[in-house]
Structures are given as structure tokens and as C-alpha cells.
Specification:
Helices cover 35% and strands 19% of the residues. It is of the alpha/beta class. The protein has a single domain, classed as TIM Barrel, CATH 3.20.20. An 8-stranded parallel beta sheet has the order 1-8-7-6-5-4-3-2. The longest helix has 14 residues. It is globular and about 45 Å long. The two termini are 13 Å apart. The relative contact order is 0.16. The protein binds D-xylitol-5-phosphate and zinc ion. The site of D-xylitol-5-phosphate (DX5) has 21 residues, from strand 2, strand 8 and helix 9. The site of zinc ion (ZN) has 6 residues, from strand 2.
Length: 219
């Protein structure tokens, strides 16, 4: 199963309903990048604004929290209707506890790791993880180049997941996913793909989502 998750980071923030509508028929989830200007040097949405976007989205929302003190900051997102909430390993004091609280709120729990964080940190948390997010750029901005050097982490995670036949853990990549790079990530074992600029800088975002899906499916 391939999932394509357009990121609205580089979409027009003044017309998010219109931007979401462009991909609503073809995308699997809407990827919402929340940045606090502390964990990353960029700011996107407050918790209030995020909740508003989530409640208005016609697609299920995949929230990617790039915010410090995730242990307490995550609480604002547990009350929303997001389908999935992902926190950064580097931003949590007790990642296991945070992941369990996301699940307890009825959402899929995601654990993201920055490029310099080894994938091994996720291994002992697999029992409380519904999605592993291997960042393929330094978090903070859209439009950066895909880091192919992250593929060994994706391969290792896929190897673990193959051995866990009873669990349904998604393996996501985020950063620089395009028509050129999606097959590399797919071959390494990713099944869930965030695509920001490639979708929203395209003249036809819906067609781009379909093309990305086709390439990933046949890779
Ligand atoms: C980066 C964000 C990404 C971003 C991806 O910190 O987490 O979701 O929107 O954008 P592209 O696809 O342009 O790299
Ligand atoms: Zn993201």
C-alpha cells in the first residue's frame, strides 16, 4: 500500500481550503507541518490555527510536529481530529510516554528522526509506534534536496517491520520527494511519502500526486 501525503508548507496559506481541495480526490492524507521557531528555525502554525486547519480539512490529517517540548506540546493536538500525530525523537523527554498518549487519544502515533539521529532509537519503541518518519532533509523548510544517504535507515526499518507481521507500522519519508526521488525511497522500503514543493509547485497538483503514486507503485 502506497500513501501520498501532500504537504501544504509551500502552498498558499491564505487559501488553504482551496489548496487542499486541489488534491482532496487523489491524496491519502494531508501532511501538516507545525513549526515553532525553536525546534526548527521557522514558524508555521499555532496550536489554535492547526486545530482550525485540521477541523476544516476534507482529507484525514497527518500532523508533523516540529516543536520543542513535545511531551507537553503534543497535548493540544490530542484533542483535534487528526488521524496521525508525529513527534520528533529529539524533542521528547520520554518518547514512549508521548507515543502512548497519542494512541490513547485514538490517533496513529508517529516518531520522526532528524538526519543525524540513528534509526536504532526507534527499535525499542516499535511496540508503541504506528509510523516511523525518516527525515530526508533537515526539518524546517520545504524545497530542499533529497538526502539519499538516509536510505540505509529506511532499509533497516523495513527489515525490522518485515519481521513484525502482526503490526501495521507505516514507514514515511519527508523531504525532497519528487518524480526523480520517490522510486529511490520506495525501493529502500518506504510506503508513505510526503511531497511538498513537487506537488504545490506543479501546474496540476492532483496529476502530480497520481504520477508520484504511479512511479512508487511500479518501483
Ligand atoms: C520539512 C517538512 C516537509 C516539507 C517537505 O521540514 O517536514 O514536510 O514540507 O517539503 P518538500 O517536499 O518541498 O521537501
Ligand atoms: Zn513534514
Amino acid at each position: 500500500m502506497i500513501r501520498i501525503c501532500p504537504s501544504i508548507l509551500n502552498a498558499n496559506f491564505d487559501d488553504l481550503p482551496g489548496e487542499i481541495a486541489k488534491v482532496a480526490e487523489v491524496a491519502d492524507l494531508l501532511h501538516l507541518d507545525v513549526m515553532d521557531n525553536v525546534f526548527v528555525p521557522n514558524f508555521t502554525f499555532s496550536a489554535e490555527r492547526s486545530a482550525e486547519i485540521i477541523s476544516q480539512s476534507s482529507l484525514p490529517v497527518d500532523v508533523h510536529l516540529m516543536i520543542a517540548n513535545a511531551d507537553s506540546a503534543v497535548l493540544d493536538y490530542l484533542e483535534t481530529s487528526a488521524m496521525s500525530v508525529t513527534v520528533h525523537y529529539e524533542a521528547c523527554e520520554d518518547p514512549g510516554k508521548v507515543l502512548r498518549s497519542i494512541r490513547a487519544a485514538g490517533k496513529r502515533s508517529g516518531l520522526a528522526i532528524k538526519p543525524n539521529t540513528p534509526i536504532e532509537v526507534a527499535e525499542e519503541l516499535l511496540d508503541v509506534i504506528d509510523m516511523i518518519l525518516v527525515m530526508t532533509v533537515e526539518p524546517g523548510f520545504g524545497g530542499q534536496s533529497f538526502m539519499e544517504s538516509m536510505m540505509p535507515k529506511v532499509e533497516k526499518a523495513r527489515h525490522w517491520l518485515k519481521q513484525r507481521t502482526t503490526s501495521d507500522i507505516w514507514l514515511q519519508v519527508d523531504g525532497g520527494i519528487s518524480l526523480q526521488t520517490i522510486s529511490i525511497a520506495r525501493k529502500a522500503g518506504a510506503d508513505t511519502f510526503v511531497a511538498g514543493s513537487s506537488v504545490y509547485k506543479s501546474a496540476n497538483p492532483a496529476m502530480m500526486v497520481e504520477e508520484l503514486r504511479n512511479i512508487a507503485t511500479s518501483a
